[in-house]
Amino acid sequence: MRKHITGFSNPTVKYLRSLRDKKxxxxxxxxxxxxxxxxxxxxxxxxxPTMLVMAEGRATHDLIDRLEGEVEANGGEIxxxxxxxxxxxxxxxxxxxxxxxxxxxxxxxxxIERDRAPIWLVAQDLRDPGNLGTMLRTGxxxxxxxxxxxxxxxxxxxxxxxxxxxxxxxxxxVARARWEEFLPWLRSGPGQLVAASLRDAVPYxxxxxxxxxxxxxxxxxxxxPETYEMECDLRVTMPMRGRADSLNAAMAGAVLAYEVLASxxx
Length: 266
Known about the structure:
By secondary structure, the chain is of the alpha/beta class. The chain folds into two domains: 2-103, CATH 3.30.1330.30; 109-265, Alpha/beta knot, CATH 3.40.1280. The chain is 36% helix and 21% strand. The strands form two sheets. The protein has a seven-stranded parallel β-sheet with strand order 8-7-6-11-9-12-10, with helices on both faces. A five-stranded mixed β-sheet has the order 1-4-3-5-2, sandwiched between helices. α1 runs parallel beside α5. It is elongated, with a radius of gyration of 20 Å.
């Protein structure tokens, strides 16, 4: 179905604007993705938007034409509108010329297949959507199975997290759980839990990592709760040669992920 929108008060515009808010994303089970690059990453990964919104007067592009065809073939909706309205939808004065609406993925812990990959990233109470997106991007780079979000993390379907993931939101599995749910699930099968930590930790290089390895990082300012760290199979630390006493949470996860990858590949 195709339609053209010219009014700011149109119900579709209100719906699309609402997806910038976490509570409306949760209520509708949908999220926004901005820009042709991310939409193409989604298409290549086998995910097609339920609605494609484009600015009128945009330059023609083969990728947009292909995307339009797949959206229509899947029974989706094609919407054209003015650049001003598209800016209103995205909240940006320099909005991308194309936006997609996707159904949120199943984030139940039960859908994670731990044997599908040798590495999994786990974040506890990670609040910055940019850090969350960076961890997804890291996971994609090291061939991880996905990112498991523990306790009160940022929303992986926010525009900021999706943008920071550089398309990895579509290639990585995402699960959400409380610690009380995650730990019994982890111990019900194979899996080594490794924390980036300062408590009774050993140097991160040369330790016996095992697949599937679950790499756990904590909150940006407070780190991991001590009770969580004590449940880990390994606690490792990275040297700080300068004045900084720690790495950014997402950076620590990336350094550790590449060390685990090198160890498992050796």
